[in-house]
Amino acid sequence: MADDASPPGMLQLTPLDPTYRADPHAVLGPMREQCPVHRDAMAGTFVISRYEDVRAIVSDNSLWRDPMNAEEAAVMQRRFADNADPTLPRTSTTSILMLDNPDHARVRQPLAQALYARVAKFRPHVERIIDHYLDAVAGEPTFDLMAKFCVPVPVDAIAEILGVEHERLDDFRDWSEGVILGLNPFRNAEQTAHMERASLALNAYFTALMADRRAAPRDDLVSDMVTLQAGGAPLSDDEIRINLQALLVGGNLTTTDLIGNGVRLLMLNPGELAKLKADPKLAAGAVEEVLRYEGPVDITGRVASRDMEVGGCPVGKTQSMTTFLRAANRDPAVFDDPDRFDITRKGKPHVSFGGGSHICIGAPLARLEAQVALVKLFERFPDLRLADPEAEPVWRTLPFFRGLETLPVAP
Length: 411
Ligand code: HEM
Prior knowledge:
CATH 1.10.630.10
């Protein structure tokens, strides 16, 4: 960015722009240096990119998350609230991702309690799911790691946590693909229709599953939630349903991309891969470094609940703030040699899961899946390499997410 240039607009900060798609940091680096806090008038939001500012904002639990609290001018953030049915209570149509207190705490607390307890004993299940997909590609001379491994692993994992029956797994995978379109603020009418169909089907399915589990509880998250509800947790059926759906929307694509980006980075950095192979206990650090270096999610947002200042810049109550997690994670003021991929890196934590009371509820599950996936994949295929080392990576164009469309590999 030249000295006299204006900061990039929001579209230039998405992979729809080829420069950003090829290397987001070619755009984010100069932006963080030259205008770390600026207002994008078109999108109606402040764009914030320094680590310390981003961390302070996401950790500040007095700020709002619900886009409905944002001024009308905050068009990008309010786009996420467009589909809300005003005749229904907000909590029936909106997951915890967009709720503020007291509803956020009321709904998140029992969900987190149940999910964390499940994840704590889920490692053997993840290992089995991962072995299954590794068995399936054994013997193939080349295969697309995204389609054959990174995409199905998280879907099967969350299906098993929820308690989806085996015979409904194909339907479930299909709905999961549909509801993920809800993440795209620029989706077209056809994609919106696909998303709505999938969402209705999932709602009907969860309704039936909740009734089944109420009648005969099993060892799964749907049973946990209806049991907590019966025991006095103040949750409506709608609230349980929309938040179970949020686990798919929030969790599948992101974990897919964490695994895909991680495998690619390790193949491109043989020294780091050798360290991991020599000591699989480095898997946790390796996954944290993938999250920092090439995390799946670009941004999160908050709404100012008071007049405030960010990096010396005044932000008025109800104004929207978009924090660029990806830019913060490469801030040279915080990370030594930030563009170096180093799985034994020490120092401050990345902000890829956001922070404060909204910090990603799926983080323990995503970490578990990625750690097991990276270790088992390279154990099974120690010589795994890019099928065509000269080929340019094919990045998806979904705004605010970074992941590969395909990752052809040779074992
Ligand atoms: C590497 C994988 C993942 C990444 C990078 C990621 C990233 C994020 C981020 C940045 C937020 C917003 C946090 C904030 O605003 O402070 C978030 C929230 C959320 N994530 Fe994740 N996520 C991942 C995996 C998952 C998984 C596996 C699940 C479900 C099982 C999930 C479900 C959610 C939900 C429900 C929220 C809303 C939490 C709240 O607002 O209280 N995510 N995630």
